[in-house]
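Hi U.,

Before I forget, here's the chain from the pilot set. I'm dumping it here mostly so it's searchable later in email.
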Amino acid sequence: MEYLLLGASNISVSRIGLGTWAIGGWLWGGTDRAESIATIQSALDRGITLIDTAPVYGFGESERIVGEALATGGRRDRAVIATKAGIAWNEGSGPRRDSRPDRLRLELEDSLRRLRTDRIDLYQVHWPDPLVPIEDTAAELDRMYRAGKIRAIGVSNYDPEQMDAFRSIAPLHAVQPPYNLFERAADDGVLPYAKANGLAVLAYGALCRGLLSGRITAQTRFEGDDLRRADPKFADPARRDQYLAAVRSLDTLARERFNRDVLALAVRWVLDRGPTVALWGARRPQQLDAAHSALGWKLDDAAMREIDAILRRDILDPVGPEFMAPPVRQALAA
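Structure:
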């Protein structure tokens, strides 16, 4: 395993992290609790120390599963728990952004209880809330940090200007943007900002919701509440065919140049872009078997250029991850 520090903190994390959105079940067709616990425990056994979760992943279920998985065998002290705050929900409405300080205080105590721990290693604001001054949100996380309830501070889905506002009030150790071969907006702002200011980058969607795993075909169908039914990359046949063509081309490159597959190439690409962690979503232990194939090698400059050429050639109608953004409270009320 490869490791890095979370910004200016003394917290070392694995450069492959376990993403647990799917483990929560919501928008991923349900969950198998026993299998999910086994997956988290298997990740630790493989040297994956960073476990990334959030209250909204299954409306508390992901955090509860993580807490149960880490509760025995000294596993809590082997893990770095990264969770989030700033998304509210209730029975009458879906998730919505809410970063008011009193809401953040409530969320922290709820997360500590569900996770069965007395501290959060990395606490992240899940989405910027345009109805709350960023400085107010930052001040509340700074109080938590100084009280020792959280060990490091992160933001997710923030742009550089928003991070500047946050850093004027509180320390910032990490940023979590969507980032993968097919969703590269972070290259234009977030990643250079992180490099310049010493932040770790936790790249979510490193395999683009499975599209870069090499296992999805034109015949793959998604059932129930699976969010990929609403993802234009999957739902629009024209776009789907472009992305699948790119996956085939990338897989050929990976096999011919590096004796690896497209999954390993996609994760290695994220790791070679900067001070990055690739968040790897898994729900079964065997889905982690391929993690080692992304480690211990590098993509050279020629390969990076060839990857860019493939993407320009095969994807004529690119689309980002914007469909996943939760609404703000004002928009929801309207």
